[in-house]
Queue: 3 jobs
Job 1
Amino acid sequence: MKNVLVIGAGTMGGGIAQLCAQQGLNTVITDIDLSFSEKARARIETGLAKRVAKGKISEEDKAGVLSRISTAGDLSPAKTADIIIESAIENLDIKKKIFAEIDALAPRDTIFTTNTTSLSISEMADATGRPEKVAQMHFFNPPTIMKLVEIMPGNKTSAETLAAAKAFARQLGKDPVVCKNEAPAGIVSRILGQLLNEATWLVASGVAEAADVDKAMKLGANHPMGPLQLVDLIGIDIHRAKMETLRKKLDDPRYQHPPLIDEMIEKGHLGRKSGRGFYDYQA
């Protein structure tokens, strides 16, 4: 793989694009408006500048990564992509529309992947004329650091596509796992979802403050990051979308989120990206 298109300029899309560029791949970030893609590239540049200042990378490394990241405000870069990674909003209708549009643009051998956590891979694949070339590649936040990529087939994904996705993950320096069959949320997100959801209930029901919940899990379970710190990093709106999907798909009340989550989203407290979530990042 040499040419990558990342659809979605949010936290995950930007991180995936940076990862690809760091591994020497020509990468395009696109979104519904060019300004969104340009902001994602600017965030990457800011992050790289901090690494230069700390002596972790050279100015030349930074320039090299940025030279391999271009931006767009439409799906036309699909015409030259070897692989497309969709990381748009967690809305199945929007994702299906994206897949139908890139299917009309991309070469027949281009592989389509989705970074979705819990939406149907098969339904996205069926929006194309090449369902055998569609798979899930679920990256973890931040994509430049986390070693795992979960790969999952839809019901028509070919063995060749799964092998190509696995090889691409390794090309990016990741250590992938491949699920045998499609299931909501795969492995990590399904297990982790209940843990994160339970942590939000502990705060919502007044059992403990967020900082104490996180301290308990870091010191008592040896977690490198507290669950509520992780919810803030993921995005509280993204967390809610995952819980709602799992609650519906699995018919399991353990994924029901507390009203506190709705209240926080209504106030615009979405976590790190908004400056405030369970913690205040504006200070």
Job 2
Amino acid sequence: MPAPSVTRLPDVPALRAQVREWRAAGDTVALVPTMGALHAGHLALVERGLAACRRVVVSIFVNPTQFGPAEDFSRYPRDAERDLALLAQAGADAAYLPDVAAMYAPGFATTVHVAGLTEVLCGPIRPGHFDGVATVVSKLLLQALPDLALFGEKDFQQLQVIRRMVRDLDIPVAIEGVPTVRESDGLAMSSRNRYLSDAERRQAAVMHAVLREVAAAVRGGAEAAPALAAGRERLEQAGFGPIQYLSVNDAETLAPLDRVDGPARVLAAAYLGATRLIDNVPA
């Protein structure tokens, strides 16, 4: 039996032709946007897409506009052949692999900016990041026009920014968040985890433990500040630093909360050695 394979779509015309063919057959379509370096978290998105729609297309594009000048765009892990093999095994139908010129043609001059949600948490720390995310995701959604697009909850702020953008711009695509997939010790799966040394990897799961402790402490309406202070101290003792934020925020608006009185998330971003880790849990 031949090994499974996915259809490679190199550019917008190929993507649209494939989606048109599926539509003509009456198929529904899910899109899973990724930057490659796939892991079990991405494959969970594919699995959910296959459960919800007849066809799944996965985009693989390391988007330069969402990286700052001192960030890891040049060294971000890339292994297209490995990614394609994983997608084939997962049952994805197609992989969309545009290059930078296909996504940002000469003279490209448009940026999508979502106010409010991008002004807290990662926003001030990574200026321009969410403009890059919103712009590329809006392009991917309009290029494919799927029924559904799936994003991991690990990047919770990104998920909320995309939901707001889609509502505001009347893009006719349903957006669904998929729960974070974790290693056995609780560490959120991430393409950047491969940057961790062995010693750092052993400490990395402390972030998830701290998030859960803070969530348990504030869930009944207790003041957040003492739990957040204790959480920061534990992160520092585990070798994290700088700690960019450890925060309790409204789950929809992302406004910081002193006390939880509705849906909320506990979110963190911190360096462990040279690797920036982010995670969040419901409060």
Job 3
Amino acid sequence: MDGTDSNVYRPVGYYSPPPAHTDAPALAASLSQQIPYPAQPGEEVTLVIKTVNVGDEPAKDIIWYLDVKEPFELKDTDGETLPELRCGETTDTEYYLTVDPDARSGEYILDLNITYSGDFDSDRHYLTTKSKFEIRVRVMGHPDIVLLDADIPKADPKSEFDAKFSIKNVGTGPAKNVKVYFENQTNILPKMSIYYIDMIAPGETKLIESGFFVDTTTPSQYLLPITIRYEDEVHEAQPEQSYSILAPVSSGNTLFVYLDSQDELTPGMVGDITIGVA
């Protein structure tokens, strides 16, 4: 990659070494530039293909055909042509593609077919041949982590409970270094404040289980704040996601027994003790 522009892909060594000697035309081609690099879902990308005649005879009536498949669409469907490419000469052909908005991160292979004619041997002076080359296009999507579901049971005052949370990557790129934060509150305290996931692929769902303490005697619905932080595949921080989930605390069938009053008790004497139940 050229250090002057990180958005342009320029490979080193764009064609195979020429044969030792051949009395025929021989074309070699590969990707010279991809702009931008990597390509982004929903945007345009330009491919510059460099072709060189590494043979010893001119190549004539050259036709390039790029077999474009999903997730790409070719903006200009007309094929590239050239009357002649002499031995040792090079030429560039450009292709303008659009990337599907739902394209996921990855390296995609497109087939480039080149048809050309020329003098190939002394017995058959003029022939037409076709060569196929692989063109690799890099796409980098964007992760998007969302909270799908929260399964929080009703809890009793001064008790513990386990909750389950489902998070999903609905984006087009992998999410890395995913951290789910359960914030400490006055009434609901997490046993573990951070849950870590190394990576979530596009379309993948992860289940998180975590325990909590109920530090209150008052039945109510308490907010449980959740924050999700993560990075994309090149470790750039993405916008954090914040949620507030209701955690219900109900008295249920729990009885609180307490000492209401008692008489002064002395050895050998009988007294009254009043027990309160709530």
